[in-house]
Amino acid sequence: MSVTSVLVLFLSVLSAMAPHAAEVRPAALPGEPPEHERARGRALVPILAERAIGYLKSQQDPQTGGWRTDGKGPIFPAVTGLVVTGMLLDPSASVADDHIRRAVAYILSCQKPDGGIYDASLPGYNTSICVSALTRVRTPEARAAVERGVAFLRTLQYSEASLAVDGRLEGTRPVGRDHAFYGGVGYGRHGRPDLSNLGWMLDALRDAGVEGSDEAFQRALVFLQRTQMLEVTPDDVVVNDMPYAKGSRQGGFIYSTSLNQSQVGSGQSMSAGMIEETLDDGTRISRLRAYGSMTYAGFKSYLYADLPRDDPRVQAALHWIRDHYSLAENPGLGSEGLYYYYVVMARALASWGEDELMVRAGDPGERARDGHPTKAGDLYRPARWADDLADRLATLQRADGSFESLNERWMENDPVLITAYSLIALRHAHGSR
User: Fold this and answer.
1) I want to staple 427 with a disulfide (CB 3.0 to 4.6 A). Which of 89, 158, 179, 225 is the partner?
2) 0.85 surpassed by pTM
3) pLDDT tens for residues 153-180?
């Protein structure tokens, strides 16, 4: 039987057993290389992507041209932006496609006089994702919208020059570099910035062609360092000057420098919780736990800001990634935010530019609970991360092309959202930037 026949058979089994798809794994045939050496993932990508796009097209609102725009709940243009991004990451896709053309028209219709692209809430989040989508459209109208959107996003970053605009849904106030909010971007409703929103914004600026030397990226470095659980580099240069990072050597990232406006500088790591770290003097102390999606978000943001590959901050994040490598879970959060994790993982490792990582062997669940740096004698194995990602997503795709919801937090019970996430992750992992 040919490898192609095996793939067809594999996908047929998945379609018939969608509720149990995570248990299905194709076995190696006699004479084939071991599983980890076969690029099964890469061969599956066109089929997975085609099915995902077919499902997404079937869910498009015929009236507006967007997704999740029927008025039955909050309208987030970002959902349409994610779908358009996933479709246009395919080099063969075209705005001439009627589905894409109508979706782009919908996104453009959502742009406000202030340049933001949103409906009634979350202007920064929605604008960032829609700007990234429009950078791939390449029409005069889209380019003009991107320029205005980028200018709007700049006003949302906390800095000495922050300006709160009367009536804006999400404004900031001027802060100095010593403030825990400096360099960050937030939702607005929680009154403090976070790494997830900052990551989306930096994606948008990067996609729009903004250089890493730009002041927005350089200000972001301050916030990034304060969300990295690393007090000092090996040569004693201070990275994170916040009290919650004192003595920490994890190298991964947390969600925010603050819980809210009244608890500034407290740090926040969502439901990743705490771990115990051993300080240099042997003292055991409880610390906020770094987790997967935020570590990949911080890692790629460092790269966008043009930090050298051998920079100790970059290497500490990479070390955490190698030690906590997993496709089964969002390390530290389990199934929470898993599809978002796949997106930031794929974009981060695609930006790093290496097809293979040497990752720590053993149980990823145990590594997620142990925040300590690798110990002498730990074993490593090669991982072709892009193929691993495609293989994992193949077990989660349903017969209709959508993906199985594993956790409802952060809207990941919405099949349109997680299918768009999955499509973007596949495209970034396998050649589209």
Assistant:
1) 89
2) yes
3) 999 999 998 655 444 445 567 899 999 9
